[in-house]
Batch of 3 targets.
Target 1
Amino acid sequence: MKNKSVFYCTECGNELSKWAGQCPACKKWNTVVEATESMKKASSLKGGSQRPLKKSERHTLSQVDSEDERRTDTGISELNRVLGGGIVKGSLVLVGGDPGIGKSTLLLQMCRELAERGSSVLYVSGEESLRQIKLRADRIGQFCDRLMLISETDLDSIVENIYEMKPDTVIIDSIQTMCRADVDSAAGSISQVRETTQTLLRIAKEEEISIFIIGHVTKEGTVAGPRMLEHMVDTVLYFEGDSNSLFRVLRGVKNRFGSTNEIGVFEMCKNGLREVLNPSEHLLCGMPENEPGSVVTAVMEGTRPMLAEVQALVCQTSFNMPRRTAAGTDYNRMNLLMAVMEKRMGLRFSSCDAYINVAGGMKIIDPSLDLSIVTALYSGYKNVPLAEKTIVFGEVGLTGEVRAVSQAAARVNEACKLGYKNCIMPKTSLDIIKSEGGNYSINLIGIRNICELSSSGLF
């Protein structure tokens, strides 16, 4: 008997009776794929028991233990920060990133630290042979015998090894190479990725084994496979950064056990990834002195204040349409701020090319970056440098007003630690700091409008 085909959207999981170019639920184009209904029923039956729960197995909310989840220290403080304090027992973590960014290296280093702390770890690789893993491990350091390696792509065989070994942590590298024999499609397909992840999720919850899965990313920067993959897992981490740059940023975009605002900063070295405990110092290394268009800003990444350099280059254009380029920040935000400066400050950017760059390869989305971009553009346009040891932060509105930002005191403290003497900030944030009675060894200058930049006395 021929299996009946069903169709579903890879973005939202919506099921359809026939193929369509656009999903009626999420309105995405070319995301509807075909799957056999018999395969889907078989996988759903294997996903859990169909029997009704006994009365002793049902609990009210007050009967559930509300103690904090037990967390395992990974031995990497930056990774602990992003995970929310460590690995939660029975969690399923998805790690994505560009090829060669360091995903496998980071997790292999984590395996080394976990094994040295007495945890049993199983590393499953579907992309590399055991010899290749050994060569990479030799560059990282000495490993103990609590780390077990498997080079396998058959999920049934991997599951048998997990049940036999009962490890504390399992690494799957990568999810796109794994396949189930009962799923009639090639490895890496939508069906295989979904069903494989569902099986690993069930094992993680039933056996309380922490599982990390590595996922390839598409050209849009998202994890390849159905969008529901990110909904199935407990935590989604993205490893960002240019593969040609030394710095890597580990960012959490979903975390059921912690904040999604934290980031971890790493530096790629010959023996693996090294933690960057003071990113501000590294990001400002090699900064030019007394150069027009160079401004230091203070941004918040979760609970961590960071200082970064914003550079602006403004020059006369030889084309009918001036060029605009933004690296490390939003291009549309840059255009908006330039329009505000033309309207409120009377600067003629329409005849100038303008380029904005956040040095160090960082991508910053903090709204407090606005005032530093405005200051850098003003400095580059006037060809006048900003005073030495000055930081700038604040959000800019369409009328040119400088609005308050969160955690202004933490930003100022970070600037004081690195020896900065002046700080241009929103006047409302300055009033809040003064009301709290803070004592800082830095000259605080509060402004209400970007027009007050020229009269700040620091140009």
Note: Residues 38-50 have pLDDT under 50 and may be disordered.
Target 2
Amino acid sequence: MISSMTGYGRYELQENERKVLVEMSGVNHRYLDLNIRLPRPLMPLEDAVRKCVKAKLARGKVEISITYQSHSEEELDVMVNDTLGKAYLEGLRHLGNQFGLEDDIKLSALMNVNDLITLQKKNIDQEVVGTMLQKAVEGALETFMKMRTNEGEALKQDILTKSIKLSEMTDAIELRSPQVVQHYRERLQARLGQLLAESPIDEARIAAEVAVFADKCAIDEEITRLKSHIKQLEEILTCGGVVGRKLDFLMQEMNREANTMGSKANDYEITKLVVELKTEIEKVREQVQNIE
């Protein structure tokens, strides 16, 4: 099965008073590059997240965002600043005595004092939250990989369609290739006929010239190799797996053969076909860049 390197996955898990949300998105990259953003309390669990993702993915630049919320009493602690409260209360009573006011101070009078009562989070339960986080990461990975697989299948079908066109172009070049030498012979004979007028033409010399030309413009080997590369392309896509790098190298080889054919052919029609062939190879190469 072929997978793309682009995709998106999301999974939210809530258990009791805790909630974990994992989102991940990916784009193409030569290697596996993970960027994991965790809230501070979960930072000790980053290695576990990284190992979980690496077990499933081989290539791509993947952004992973994790958020964590907890209203569990086990992770919350109410802190009261007794010193601040006592000082504030004494200050109020001093004002009362100073101005002869009735002492009707109630608890509500202290509620608006800044930093008198603070809510602090205790250390989280690494085992409980770690288990939740693993489930959420695996859930996000499942949807992420499903999207990558769907896109990978679409890429596969598109490249297979393009490979048919590559084969047709290669066949057209192969069909045209023998005609190049024949046309050269005809042009050479016509040119010599004009130059020598009624003088006899040395057929042996013409044959030698044609042989040299045929050797220089021969592209049989390039055509054979290009056909083999196209067949390999189809076989690799059919077998599937992590094949992005292999396909990328194959496209480089195909482009090299096309360039050689264009430089050796010495024929306008073949040159036009080679330009079209290279354009199609580039289209396939761009698609291959997205395959894992």
Note: The first helix runs from residue 46 to 54.
Target 3
Amino acid sequence: MKEALKVKKWWGENAAELTQSPQNVLADFRKWVEQVLVVSAIRSPKFNTTDKLIIIWKLLWDTKITFQEVESKIEELKEFHLDIIKEKLENVSQDLLDYVAQQFDLFKAHIEFWCVNKQIIPNKENDYLINTQNWSISIIWFWEYISACILSIVINALWEDWISSSQLDLSNITDWIDWNSEQLFRELSERISKRVNSLLEFGVIPVVPGYIPWFEQGIENAIWRWYSDATASMVAVWLSEDFDVTLEVQKSVRGMLSADPRLLENSNTAKLIERLDYLTAKEITWIRWAQAKLLHNQVLRRELQESGIKVYLFDPFREWKWTIISKQKNLDSSWVEFIWWRDKVLVCTVSLWNMSDSWIVFKIFSIVQDYASVDIIWTSETELSFTIDAWLSKNKLAEMSDRIRKSLWIQEDGYENFVRFQENKSLVYCVWQNLSHSLWSLGRAATALASGWVNIEMVSQWTMERAMVFCIRGEDFKKAVNLLHDEFIR
């Protein structure tokens, strides 16, 4: 029988307040459960490290910038991290503080190099491409590296002598990797897990920085930007070959909720979704602007699903309140569990007498892909409608529609052949696990919306199993969310 192991994605603030959590490291250590911690940059309610880094990025882009103007911002960050150590440790040694301060001095040396040479200017788009071996350093990686360093120091100093923790340095984990998405995930998983296992063998709790810096070929098209949630998932997959692994993703909310509480007339009616299967959870996390920040969509990769790893999503300060994501579908779920919306949507409709010809749709979307991403599609024998973001400028919209007309030889007559745009639309999403076995679900939704005079302009059932989407007037989205929430969930 495999030994139990928890891979924990520590919440950033929890790294500073870990002693107060009922789910803390010591609690599981006393149960003889082995652990791996994956951490983000440390922050507090009054101090957001990422916001401070954005200021540094902006300063570095200024061609007139001098090192002295950046140095004060770095000093502010250093003092914040040193204060966390002093706050959590009663008798902190000066050697310990000096070690952390030295790491910041090293970082300042890299920043000064940037300012002097102006060769490599980091920003959010290219930070992951920066090669740490060529006298430059990934900004994002550095702060999560520091976070791992501090957390391991606090664990070692706070509790009994028999608990031991060590940070894991991933700065040179990627070197020459040049594979496709699946190979890249597997290779990185194996490399990190070997380093993790080397610590676990000696009873040490590994603390892993969540951000992995630099890929020679870039990673944007392979696995997107690396976030600490995704790194935790990757570590869990490979360790599952030797351990009975569960993945705990800790956040500032109690799990996945049925809707955004801020949008509901009574925020207390937002319900915790206690159990989801992998595919339904993935449906939710892939809806743009929904719960992607709550659970990054790269967590529920195919490799994790094949390994059958249970994912617990929860607030570490709320004991026994969480969302469990696993292979098993919740058969008790018979109605909508999750409702979301997107406003500022534009509907494009193309009408043509021979729309059923296979090459027509190909022509349309080969043009649209140059301008915007498509979310929802509706089709009939003579019309094709789809939604795109409304931020596309009027000039670009005119250019796109003109190209479609010329490509399809549309002579607009206002009745049968045309390209039209409808602005100020919203999408409302309803997601649940057993849509195909839920009788009258569409009828119930339509009746609920009609009771509030919300007109359904278009409806799409994404897959027969999991979701349906309504297109409505832009100003009605808040009313629609509340009507559907009252009907199916409250």
Note: Residues 3-250 form a domain with the Carbamate kinase fold (CATH 3.40.1160).
